[in-house]
Amino acid sequence: MRGIRGAVTVEQDEKEAIWQAAAEMVTAMLKENDIAPEDIGAAIFSQTEDLVSAFPSAGVRSRVQGFDLVPLFDARQLAIEGSIPMCIRALLLVDTDRAQRDIHHIYLGRARKLRPDLAK
To answer: For residue 53, which of 91, 88, 84 has the smallest C-alpha distance?
Structure first.
């Protein structure tokens, strides 16, 4: 099992923006790592305190094919001074034979600042 990290930012606290960004991030995580939803043991999402209009997991479940049976969990990110606002993060726990160095983590939008060494 490996963890695949992802993060994305939105420009406004609206359901559509949150759902679209979460689905885009997860779709990129799947594509870049050649992962299918049935390979996922669980997906954990968090978002900053300034995002209150929607659960990112609901957007992923409704917009990314195959997520109807994946266990999903939402949480609030810690409110740390200087952190990136309007940010959604994800951790996919996946069954894979890939080595850790072969995992591609996805950082989109302003979230690229979180891990510039890994951002594409």
So the answer is: 88
The alpha-carbon radius of gyration of the chain (Å, integer) is: 13
Residue 6 to residues 44, 68, Cα–Cα distance (Å): 10, 20
Q: What is the pLDDT of residues 56-110, one digit of tens each?
A: 999 999 999 999 999 999 999 998 998 999 999 999 999 999 999 999 999 999 9
- Provide the whole-model pTM: 0.94
| 120 neighbors 104 (Cβ within 8 angstroms) | yes
Cross-strand bridge partners of residue 74: 45
Task: Determine what percent of the chain falls in helix, strand and coil, rounding each to the nearest 5.
Answer: 30, 25, 40
Instruction: Supply the DSSP string of 30-49, one letter for each residue.
Output: HHHHT--GGGEEEEEEEE-T
Q: Which two structure tokens, joined as six digits, stand for 30? A: 């799947």
Helix (H) or strand (E) holding 70: none
Token duo for residue 68: 């109807």
